[in-house]
Structure prediction request, 334 residues.
Amino acid sequence: AKVDGRDGQLTVFRPSLLYNTGRVISYTVIGGIVGALGSVISFSGAAKGVVAIVAGVFMVLMGLNMLNVFPGLRRFLPRMPKFVGRKIQSEGRHYGPFYVGLLNGFMPCGPLQAMQLYALGTGSFLAGATSMFMFSLGTVPLMFGLGAVSSLLSSRFTHKMMKASAVLVIALGLVMANRGLALSGVTAPSLPLGINSSYQSVQVATIHDGVQTVTTKLYPGRYEPIIVQKGIPVRWNIKAEPKDINGCNNEIIIPQFNQSKKLAPGDNIIEFTPTQTGTFGYSCWMGMIRSRIMVVDDLNNIDMFSLQQSQPEDYDRLPSGCSCCQVLSPEPGL
Prediction:
């Protein structure tokens, strides 16, 4: 019998509703567990970087598997436990999508892993659960819409959409791995994501009474690079206005100097002593906003041209359109 009217509409949207309900529950519970874990275990920037790299690699493998480019890659992908698969299959269209949504919280996904790292940093079950709950709610309209639309599309068009999704998953995996390298302290080049590049001014330290001081200003979408001298203690002051602090740039990770700093309005002091020359990367806690610390032998003998060429011009700037950091226009004059 053909189902018409309101009952027919509910039948079409029911799988998406069940899937998203399971997903919201899964994200919230996992966020709470991860947040509670963060209260007893402190993860370094390098450890967070490893998580991001592993998630990125799995995303690339998943994308290649979806394209069926290398069938042998399937053996490297995590498999659903057989008893879970049988449970979902037995439920069919009744509650199967709900269980799939519950499992979605364990999938390797760049944005999801980034939010889980944020929940970890809260160090609180309630704060971690709340952050993941809000994140999951924010994605419900898009996921609900895609699920509802896909149920109305032909199988041929759905197949093409899956191929396009696979390419997107691979791209996101590469971006996630790139951010993981940044969190680990590897100054990998930024991926070409439509970045509005412009060389940024470098702040050079000054030495007084055996201590070198350098002051930078925090901007919503970038950090300023600095130049310091080897072997002299550094006192770095990051001045932050309340309007310039957001959920992405509010914590700096400097792997080589074993430093991490939560930024608050006003003066934020970071102290360390560089023991070797070179260019060392630092980033936000998500590995999205990146900059560098250049250590030289003598501040009075700096080759500024060479330093400007040491990194791509777009290295310091966040990709345009990044919603998580709510990038605002840079300061006037750039």
